[in-house]
Design brief:
- By secondary structure, the chain is α/β, with parallel strands linked by helices.
- It has two domains: about 220 residues, DHBP synthase; about 110 residues, Threonylcarbamoyl-AMP synthase, C-terminal domain (Rossmann fold, 3-Layer(aba) Sandwich), CATH 3.40.50.
- The protein is about 35% helix and about 20% strand.
- It has twelve helices and 16 strands.
- Helix 8 links the parallel strand 10 and strand 11.
- Helix 1 packs across helix 6 and helix 11 packs parallel to helix 12.
- The chain binds threonylcarbamoyladenylate and magnesium ion.
- Magnesium ion (MG) binds next to loops.
- Magnesium ion binds next to loops.
């Protein structure tokens, strides 16, 4: 099928285009759309057959549940059987925004999208195109990130087109995503709120609302031994086409560690690509050609790095490197989300600087 790409830069002025997109969703088709985190691949969340097309287009394992995108509180009540106290507080503090809440589900939500779980992930995006699309569709929109399963999530409409051309009828282009990493997933059903996937709403921000001691990180995210509670977190993910190794540690030791590892790999006959901060790349100009570099922003500027990492990883699709080295960041604050994605993109291969 032909994939149409429509630029939406004025939600109010482009009501007709959004109405048509909502109509496509209602009729059981798949539409890609921007959110403030990453682009989503949306279908009617109450229609199991429509959602099957999402799995098909992504090549996604069928046991990996989809999250539902809603425009307002009454849509949450439509799909969630209850809203526990902690979830209520998080809703008030962070919604709409880059957070997904795991809630007990209603039976109206098809088994096909929850992977048979008794819960459902619910997210209220803030992006005006996402909100307008959900409103136009009039139904909760099930949407995973709009990448082929296992690839870095798309943060531009062009990246969606790269993965989805010919597979879906429509992509709404709303420009680059602000945050660049997927929403924080929080299971607030139990005694403590559990972060199942770190994101732009950090542990520190959750603690401010729920109290320190009431927020924990799913232990499976820090070790790789136990099984994560978000089914999707167990898969290799966000991976560029060439294998990536991270260099982690103190910023002051980075350049030396990169130089050593680059020399070793080049001596072994490899063409080395490097994804790193502006500051580190500057110091490598004599041994790495510009076209094999991806600059992810200034060292320590975490919001910009988060917004750039997926595009930086994807940029190696068109570069000749057969091995990649990437610079790690701190794991504090937003760094937890960044390092989670980088560890997964690298299959946990890393070198200590
Ligand atoms: O920012 C985002 O969350 C983006 C945008 C498009 O909204 N969406 C996104 O969806 O990242 P996806 O499908 O790529 O990631 C959702 C994650 C998966 O790891 C899935 O396993 C997990 O949420 N998940 C979904 N339902 C769940 C549930 N009931 N319990 C635990 N984890 C769940
Ligand atoms: Mg995803």
């Amino acid at each position: 099928m032909e994939t149409k790409l429509i630029k939406i830069d004025n939600v109010k002025g482009q009501r007709d285009a959004l109405h048509a997109a909502g109509e496509l969703i209602r009729s059981g088709e798949v539409v890609a759309f921007p959110t403030e985190t990453v682009y989503g691949l949306g279908a009617n969340g109450l229609d199991a057959d429509a959602c099957a097309k999402i799995y098909q287009a992504k090549g996604r394992p069928s046991d990996n549940p989809l999250i539902l995108h809603v425009a307002n509180r009454s849509m949450i009540d439509q799909v969630a059987a209850a809203i526990p106290d902690k979830a209520e507080k998080l809703l008030a503090a962070f919604c709409p925004g880059p957070i997904t809440l795991i809630l007990p589900r209603r039976s109206l939500v098809p088994d096909r999208i929850t992977g048979g779980l008794s819960t459902v992930g619910v997210r209220m995006p803030e992006h005006d195109v996402a909100r307008a699309l959900i409103a136009a569709a009039g139904v909760p929109i099930a949407a995973p990130s709009a990448n082929i399963s296992g690839r870095p999530s798309p943060t531009t409409a062009e990246a969606v087109l790269t993965d989805m051309d010919g597979k879906i009828p429509l992509i709404l282009d709303g420009g680059s995503c602000d945050f660049g990493v997927e929403s924080t997933i929080v299971d607030a059903v139990g005694d403590k709120a559990v972060i199942l996937r770190p994101g732009a709403i950090t542990k520190e921000m959750l603690e401010e609302v729920l109290g320190a001691g009431n927020v924990i990180i799913d232990p499976a995210l820090v070790g790789k031994d136990s099984v994560p509670r978000a089914p999707g977190m167990k898969y290799t993910h966000y991976a560029p086409k060439a294998p990536l190794t991270l260099i982690e540690g103190m910023p002051t030791r980075m350049v030396r560690a990169f130089r050593q590892e680059i020399s070793r790999l080049q001596a072994a006959g490899h063409t080395v690509g490097v994804m790193a901060s502006h500051e580190v790349l500057q110091e490598l100009a004599d041994i790495v050609p510009r076209e094999l570099m991806a600059d992810y922003g200034h060292q320590g500027k975490l919001p910009a790095i988060a917004a750039n990492i997926y595009e930086a990883l994807r940029s190696f699709d068109d570069k000749e490197a057969d091995v990649l080295l990437g610079e790690g960041t701190t794991a504090a604050g937003l760094g937890l989300a960044i390092m989670n994605r980088l560890h997964k993109a690298s299959g946990f291969r890393s070198i200590q600087a």
